[in-house]
Automatic annotation (TrEMBL):
<keyword id="KW-0560">Oxidoreductase</keyword>
<comment type="similarity">
    <text>Belongs to the short-chain dehydrogenases/reductases (SDR) family.</text>
</comment>
<dbReference type="GO" id="GO:0016491">
    <property type="term" value="F:oxidoreductase activity"/>
</dbReference>
<dbReference type="InterPro" id="IPR002347">
    <property type="entry name" value="SDR_fam"/>
</dbReference>
<protein>
    <submittedName>
        <fullName>Dehydrogenase</fullName>
    </submittedName>
</protein>
<dbReference type="InterPro" id="IPR036291">
    <property type="entry name" value="NAD(P)-bd_dom_sf"/>
</dbReference>
<dbReference type="Pfam" id="PF00106">
    <property type="entry name" value="adh_short"/>
</dbReference>
Length: 265
């Protein structure tokens, strides 16, 4: 595999991650695709090899496990791969009161959404900085802009990702490494089904469906943003208005109440 243009994408088996893989392959990047489902990864890899003539390395692993980032680094380093693009897309949320959710699930969400993002970034960044080139895309969420009752850990974890990534942008802007936080709103992916029936029901309401974006739209917006100097992107005009304006203008108590009703199920 050529080492000059290799994109590593976590959570690549479906949704936004699979679309990132498709679009980077279309731009001539070889790929490392990471997720739990080896069957879905192999299907994706076969399609992209055929369509774009790129090499695709499949890494099936659970990134919510402790030391997952270190294991992933060891695998790619052992293959002699220099990662030029890192997309930290893997993540999940749970739905329900914190008191009612399995504590292990909450801890796994923090592990995947926060610790693994830091771990992969900290391991792949030094080579990028040494080369004076590279790209890191961390997928946060519109949930990062306000507390999210019934999805408290998910919202807090994405606020962490946004803050971490914006700080990283400031650190790396003079070193040639492009850093961007991407904050999608509702997107047509399996996310809410995985979060639980109540979350899926809340996401299927008419108002929610009117704001739902496709993975292709999210990744298209991201690719455009990479050509600029933004530290963060909120995908979609309506989502950006809510995140950048509404959450700052309305009283915090009202913002919390509204967000709780939207995802309450």
């Amino acid at each position: 595999m050529a080492t000059s243009k290799v994109a590593l994408i976590t959570g690549a088996s479906t949704g936004i991650g699979a679309e990132f893989a498709r679009q980077f392959a279309a731009r001539g990047h070889d790929l490392v695709v990471v997720a739990r489902s080896v069957d879905r990864l192999n299907e994706l890899a076969a399609r992209l090899r055929t369509a774009h003539g790129v090499e695709v390395t499949v890494v099936a692993m659970d990134l919510s496990q402790p030391d997952a980032a270190a294991e992933l680094w060891q695998r790619t380093d052992g293959l002699g791969l220099e990662i030029s693009v890192l997309v930290n897309n893997a993540g999940f949320g749970t739905h329900g009161d914190v008191a009612d959710v399995d504590p292990q699930r909450l801890e796994d969400a923090v592990e995947l959404n926060c610790r693994t993002v830091v771990g992969t970034t900290a391991r792949y960044l030094p080579q990028m900085r040494a080369r004076g080139a590279g790209t890191i895309i961390n997928v946060a969420s519109i949930a990062a802009f306000q507390p999210l009752p019934k999805m408290a850990v998910y919202g807090a974890s994405k606020a962490f990702v946004l803050s971490f990534t914006e700080a990283l942008w400031a650190e790396e802007r003079e070193h040639g490494v492009r850093v961007l936080a991407v904050c999608p709103g509702l997107t047509d992916t399996p996310f809410f089904e995985l979060a639980g029936d109540a979350a899926a029901s809340a996401a299927s309401g008419s108002a929610a469906l009117a704001l739902t974006r496709t993975p292709e739209q999210v990744v298209d917006s991201t690719m455009r943003a990479l050509s600029g100097r933004k530290h963060s992107l909120v995908d979609g005009v309506a989502n950006a208005f809510v995140a950048r304006v509404v959450t700052r203008v309305l009283p915090r108590r009202m913002v919390i109440a509204v967000s709780g009703r939207l995802v309450g199920g």
